[in-house]
Amino acid sequence: MISISTLWCRDESRHNLLRYGSGTEMKSGAERKPVVVLTLTRNCNLLCKHCYNNSSAAIPRGELTTAEAEKLLRDLAAFGVPVVLFSGGEPLMRPDIYELLSLAQALGLRTALSTNGTLLDPDAARKLKELGVVYAGISLDSTDPLANDHFRGKAGAYDAARVGFQNCREAGLPAGLRFTLTQFNQISLPGVFDFIVRQEIPRVCFYHLAYSGRGSLIKEADLSRIERRKALDFIIDKTEELYKQGIKKEVLTVNNSSDGVYLYLKKLKTNPLEAAKIKEYLAWNGGALYGSGVGICCIDETGEVHPDQFWSDCKLGNIRETSFADLWQGHPVPFLGELREREKHIQGRCLNCSYFELCGGNMRSRAAGCQGDPWEQDPSCLLYDEEITSAKGV
Question: What angle do CA 250, 265, 263 make, to 5 degrees?
Answer without folding.
Answer: 10
